[in-house]
Fold:
Amino acid sequence: MSHRRDLALTALAPAIWGSSYIVTTTFLPGQSPYLVALLRALPAGVLLLLMVRQLPPLTLVPKILVLGALNFSVFWALLFLAAYRLPGGVAATLGAVQPLFVMGLSGVLLGSQIHGKGILAALLGVLGVGLLVLGPDASLDPLGVAAGLGGALSMATGVVLTRKWQPGVPALTFTAWQLTAGGLLLVPVAYVALPNWPTLSAENVIGLAYMSLIGGAFTYILWFRGIGRIARAGLFAGGVQPADGGDPRCGLCRGEL
Structure:
């Protein structure tokens, strides 16, 4: 029974991540995607950093900045831009191409073998998402489409480099470093993009709190806790441990089914 509870709680994390589109359009309409990305990343990163109580070595800082930009700064800014300019179903379908990018980049940057079954699974995933969420009212805004594909490519690159540069620290610590770096990188971007920051309503604050504390810090804690317990219980297929310390973005890093 405890294993089932661990699986259910771990599965809750990606379910919460999937709510980003509806929360953005419902609680944060008309806001700057750069501001939303900043206020999602930085508070969550600082909170996790206070929990892990470990700073990265100076030699690792350049890589942390690159990963923070790819996995959080660029990815979330483009994610929210796509969410504002596209129907949620279109944005979700574009995001579903990320596994294909991951497999291709893994082959180029890591020399991983790309399996036909993995490509087929990724294509079926895109098709499945499209069938579930696309409707007759789906529209294609060019900038929104570019943002959706660019966000998927940014995170896919971050996923592969995360695997390549994974240091000898717990995955939650590595994520805390990247989240904080990603938030800090967004500060000057938001400052330039928004000379006059908007006044946030109570509804906006609720949405941002959910995105940062629940959709950011809490879900990563939940995910890494669950992945660790599931791995120790040997519940992964064939007893194989998850790659990259259980990185939630590395499901198809190796291009395998």
